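Entry for zinc ion complex. Fields follow.
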Amino acid sequence: MKERRAYWEKIVADASARHGRQITLRPKSESRFLWPVLQFLFSLFTYWIPIAFTFGWAKSRLQKVDIINGFHSMFSSTMWLAGDGSSWEESSTESKDATASHEIDHLDRLYFGNGSIREEWDALEKKPKPSRLRWAWNAFRYLFWLLPFKYATYRQEFERDGYARSLQVVVHVHGGKVPDYWRQWLIVWFSGPGYGWMATPERAEEVVKGLIEEVERVHSLGENPYARFQQQQPRD
Ligand SMILES: [Zn+2]
């Protein structure tokens, strides 16, 4: 019997072809330099500097975010897995599909520019070549545009599109509806320290509401690429 390829394996392979280099998966615990440095910088800007600037006032109100063990991240053409990678290994296929969709959307957005959640990823091949200059420009905007905190409108948009891809998996698995715990979880993330407080709680609520409505609408129109992939799979 032919081994069926999971969605995440297909999109990683397709993205490797599109970007002209192999996308690899590696646990962050193997990183000797990159992730320890990023963790240091992250804690510096979201924990130590705010505490210093408020003469300690912020200390009881802030929590340190463990970006090494806390979540998976895309950096250059590597999908870095949280911690020793065991949380990835143990997660369900759907959860891997959702995570890889999110991370590859980031990769495409950084190197190719903006997309739309209706667009099949393959359509990106018709666009200009992946550009390092565009990567640098978008990375700059991710960190600083419009402001580093609270009004980080580019970062909001960027993560919104990443989660649109993840929710296309979720909405298919849940028969056309995004469960409410996703809405609540996303609002916490959009307004919390994990993304450097990129939005006010009010703005986070508004963005997440629009995101879920769009994902459900696109799905109901039959334009969800994840659902389409699953429908094309051979049945047992
Ligand atoms: Zn993201």
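NOTE: The chain has a mean pLDDT of 90.
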